[in-house]
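Extended Data, panel c. Modelled sequence:
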Amino acid sequence: MDTELREQIQRLTDRAEIYDCMQRYARGIDRADRVLLRSAYHDGAVDDHVGFVGVVDDFIDWALAYHSTQTRHQHYLLNHSVDIDGDVAHAETYYLFVGTDREPANHMTISGGRYVDRLERRDGRWAIADRVCVVEFITEADSQLTEEIIAMQAGMRTTQRDATDPSYDRPLIAKR
C-alpha cells in the first residue's frame, strides 16, 4: 500500500474515531450512562459548559444531576468539522438540545449551540481533553407529550435513562 493511501486511511479513521467520541458523549448523557459518557473524555479533561467549569468527573455529576430533573431529553449532533494535527485535533460540533422538565410539568427547553473541543489521541484512543460549550439560542415551550397522553397510548414506548432502554437490547427484537 502506498504512503498516500495509508495517510488517507489514517485521516479517515481518525475522523471516524473522533465523531464516534462525540456520539458516545451524546448517547451517554441521554441514557445517563456514566461509563459511556466518561469514555468520551480523557482523565483531567476540563468542560466549560453553560455556567459550569471544571474537571470531567465533576462535570458528569453536575450534568447528570441537572438532567435528573427532566422526564425526557435528547442531544442531537449536527454539523461536525475537525482539524487533525498528529495526536491533537480541534473539533466543532453543532448541537440541538430538547428537554422536558418534571416541574413545572411539561415545560420544555430547546437550545442550540456548538461544542468546541480539543481532543487528543492517548494510547491509541481519541477523547476530549478540553471542551467549551457555546450556546447560540434557548427557547421555552410546553410539550404536547404529557404523562396523560402517554398513559392513554397502550404500548407506547418511552425513554428509559438506564440499561432497560431498548437501545441496550442485544439482540434487539421488537415485540410482536
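Strands lie at 41-49, 52-55, 70-85, 88-101, 107-122, 125-142. This feature is highlighted in the accompanying rendering.
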